[in-house]
Each structure stands twice: as structure tokens, then as C-alpha cells.
Specification:
The complex is a heterodimer of chains A (115) and B (113). Chain A is an all-beta fold. Helix content of chain A is 0%, strand content 55%. Chain B is built from no helices and eleven strands. In chain B, strands 2, 4, 5, 9, 10 and 11 form a six-stranded mixed sheet that branches. Chain B has a five-stranded antiparallel sheet with strand order 1-3-8-7-6, with no helix packed on it. Classes of the chains: A mainly beta (115), B mainly beta (113).
């Protein structure tokens, strides 16, 4: 079946630095990738939707200059958290549209801690 | 934005028990309802996608039903096993077939041997 590889699984960074999270589709072409984050005891919340070769669409309240999304190829999408602050500490997870209008395949997530 | 709610938040059962949990969602502008099984440190695993009122899906000991008129879905696990322990997520999609998923908070199931 379809697999999305996400890394790193965990990252600790200093406040003010940038962190890049990668999601790769291993055996299919991911035209559309969704990025979610999850704060403790809350549900997965959609941050943005990216389509290969075009600019990402951000959800209301998500700063596009802070969360840079690049989807330059059909197998790779990246999320860069720029100038990270402790309040950006969260669980980030990607999901690719697998096909047929119904299937979504998830990465395994990244736990970001900003100290 | 859809409001998706799951209950209970957590559930402890004994091995062999059957159990069920609920996902409720707005019935208007509904397209699809997804169920996922999510084990710690792994990717959420797709269980079911349902779109039509009255849909029933089954996968081994796990089954799900959908009522789009009243806005709820049930997930059933028959004869729970310790390996069924996981977080079960539901997500609703509205609008187009490539619509965004709105997730509930999940139900954490623990099956005790």
C-alpha cells in the first residue's frame, strides 16, 4: 500500500532557529499534501494544503511566513517552521491524497519541542 | 468548518469484550466520514471511508455504520484484543471529494489482558 515517510520523528531546537520537516511519498505520486498539527489533548488541526508546483493554501490563523511549505516534486513536501518559539512546540503530521477521492495516507508525525 | 466530536474520550475494556464508540458531525454539507486507527509512534491507519446514509463497513472484528441524516457514525469492535489498543480517530469531509478532513479528538481504547 501507499506509504508516506516523515522525518524527523522528534526534534528539539532552540528558540529563534528554523526546523524543516520532510514528507516523502515512497510508492506513489502525491499531488496534494495536507499538513496538520496537534496540541496536547486537542484534535488534529489542518494547517495548510499544498499542491505540487503551486503555492500552499493556509487555513485561517496559520501564518504563512512562519510555516513555509514547499511541494516542488510529486514525492516530496516540506514544512519549515521559521524562527521557532516555544509556542510552536507541537506534533506535526502530513497526509497525502492517495487517489480516488477517498484515500489519505499519513506520515508518522514529528514531535517538535522548542526550548 | 465542521465540528466533529467523539465519545468517549477514553475507554478501558477487558480482553474479549465488545465495545463501540461514537463520532458525531454536522449533517449538512457532508461528503464522507473516515475512521482511522492510530498506534503510538506509527502512522494513522485507514479503517473505513463511508459516504452514504446507512453505509455499513466491516474489516475483521471491526465494523462501522453511518447515519448522515442525524450526523453520527458508530465504530464497533467485537471480541476486543490487546492489540486493538490504540486511538481511534474519525474525520469528516464536506464539500468536494477532495475536501479537507476535520478530525475529532479521538477515542483512546485500552484492552486489558
Amino acid at each position: 500500500g501507499a506509504v508516506v515517510s516523515q522525518h524527523p520523528s522528534r526534534v528539539i531546537c532552540k528558540s529563534g532557529t528554523s526546523v524543516k520537516i520532510e514528507c516523502r511519498s515512497l510508492d506513489f505520486q502525491a499531488t496534494t499534501m495536507f499538513w496538520y498539527r496537534q496540541f496536547p489533548k486537542q484534535s488534529l488541526m489542518l494547517m495548510a494544503t499544498s499542491n505540487e508546483g503551486s503555492k500552499a493554501t493556509y487555513e485561517q490563523g496559520v501564518e504563512k511566513d512562519k510555516f513555509l511549505i514547499n511541494h516542488a516534486s510529486l514525492t516530496l513536501s516540506t514544512l519549515t517552521v521559521t524562527s521557532a518559539h516555544p509556542e510552536d512546540s507541537s506534533f506535526y503530521i502530513c497526509s497525502a491524497l492517495t487517489g480516488g477521492g477517498y484515500g489519505y495516507t499519513f506520515g508518522s508525525g514529528t514531535r517538535l519541542t522548542v526550548v | 468548518i465542521l465540528n466533529v466530536e467523539q465519545s468517549p474520550q477514553s475507554l478501558h475494556v477487558q480482553e474479549g469484550d465488545s465495545t463501540n464508540f461514537t463520532c458525531s458531525f454536522p449533517s449538512s454539507n457532508f461528503y464522507a466520514l473516515h475512521w482511522y486507527r492510530w498506534e503510538t509512534a506509527k502512522s494513522p491507519e485507514a479503517l473505513f471511508v463511508m459516504t452514504l446514509n446507512g453505509d455499513e463497513k466491516k474489516k475483521g472484528r471491526i465494523s462501522a455504520t453511518l447515519n448522515t441524516k442525524e450526523g453520527y457514525s458508530y465504530l464497533y469492535i467485537k471480541g476486543s484484543q490487546p492489540e486493538d489498543s490504540a486511538t481511534y480517530l474519525c474525520a469528516a469531509a464536506g464539500g468536494t471529494s477532495y475536501g479537507k478532513l476535520t478530525f475529532g479528538q479521538g477515542t483512546i481504547l485500552t484492552v486489558h489482558p
